[in-house]
Write a structure and sequence with these properties.
By secondary structure, the chain is an alpha/beta fold. It has an 8-stranded parallel β-sheet, sandwiched between helices. Helix 6 links the parallel strand 5 and strand 6. The radius of gyration is 18 Å and the shape is globular.
């Protein structure tokens, strides 16, 4: 049972539009707080989008996701999981980026997450553009490579942009494979679609054994069948979950920089995460929420809802077993 200190503020005690917003209305702790050693899952913001190559805005994602997450309650209505009773969760604040220097920001991120992991805390990240995942993985997979379930409309496996720029939101997982952070044969990318520059990213995936599931296959087979394969691919080894909001059709999540039509609806967006229950999850992220392109906060709330589903899966992974 989680300590009552780590329970979120109830809407029965303080209206959800009142108070200082933290992720899920959880307590905010810094690295010098004595209670940090009691935290099992840390929710972390990365307000950074220097890897964006088209429409900027994900640097504002963590703030919008925090605000939207004040609507999240204590129990998962579909699975019955009450994550705040299984483990201690806290908002660990934002990693301060250097918006003018990509390598410096990545070093800051890796250093921050190394401290989080050294404290025995599993990280749940709110980005930020998808380049965010690379420095996080450098910390998570510092000792051994991990598998990954990746929800996205893009592979993010390109070699470089603009004649040699190696670090953009379209290259993080190419770098992660090259750096030995990911076990490519334990990586599955789900929802890939849209027009393309060429087939370089897909050719690379095939060459190293990454499984791509295009959106046409996803719709033809359905959530249950696709996710059964995803579970088989990653097995019970350490697995990272990376969730780009543009995995979801822009009719449901318009607030993102590189939208692609034809994606899953908002219900399917939650179903795929619930299907991860029981995996050996070691961390997760929700990226590419871009509030300037949102409509009525719909994308931010959907992103916060996905984060809650991820939190439930992570809490069960730590507590052991599944409920409901």
């Amino acid at each position: 049972m989680s300590d009552t200190f780590f329970q979120p503020v109830s809407g029965f005690d303080l209206p959800r539009f009142a108070g200082i917003p933290t992720f899920m209305r959880l307590p905010h702790l810094s690295f010098d707080d004595q209670r940090l050693v009691e935290v099992d899952i840390g929710l972390i913001g990365v307000p950074w989008d220097s890897g964006t190559t088209n429409r900027p805005g994900p640097r504002h994602g963590p703030r919008a996701l925090r605000d939207a997450s004040t609507m999240i309650r204590a129990e998962n209505g579909a699975t019955g999981v009450r994550p705040y009773e299984l483990v201690n969760c806290a908002d660990l604040g934002d990693v301060a980026p250097n918006p003018a220097d990509i390598p410096d920001t990545m070093d800051r991120l890796t250093s921050f997450y190394a401290k989080v992991l050294d404290a025995g805390i599993m990280p749940l990240t709110a980005g930020g553009d998808h380049l965010t995942s690379l420095p996080v993985l450098r910390a998570v997979a510092a000792n051994d490579p991990v598998g990954m379930v990746h929800f996205d409309s893009h592979t993010d496996l390109y070699h470089s942009y603009f004649g040699g720029t190696m670090y953009t939101h379209g290259t993080p997982f190419r770098r992660a494979v090259e750096e030995g952070l990911l076990e490519p044969e334990r990586v599955v990318q789900i929802g890939i679609r849209g027009t393309a520059y060429d087939s370089e990213d897909k050719d690379f995936a095939k060459s190293v054994g990454i499984r791509l599931i295009p959106i046409e296959e996803f719709h033809a087979r359905g959530v249950d069948d696709v996710m059964a394969e995803a579970r088989e691919i990653v097995g019970q080894g350490p697995t990272y979950i990376s969730y780009d909001i543009d995995f979801i059709d822009p009719a449901f999540a318009p607030g993102t920089g590189t939208p692609e039509v034809g994606g899953p609806n908002s219900y399917q967006a939650l179903q795929v995460v619930r299907a991860l229950r029981g995996l050996n999850v070691v961390g997760a992220d929700m990226v590419e929420v871009s509030p300037p392109f949102d409509v009525g906060g719909l994308t931010s709330y959907l992103g916060a809802s996905v984060m809650f589903e991820l939190l439930c899966v992570m809490a069960e992974a730590i507590a052991g077993g599944t409920e409901g």
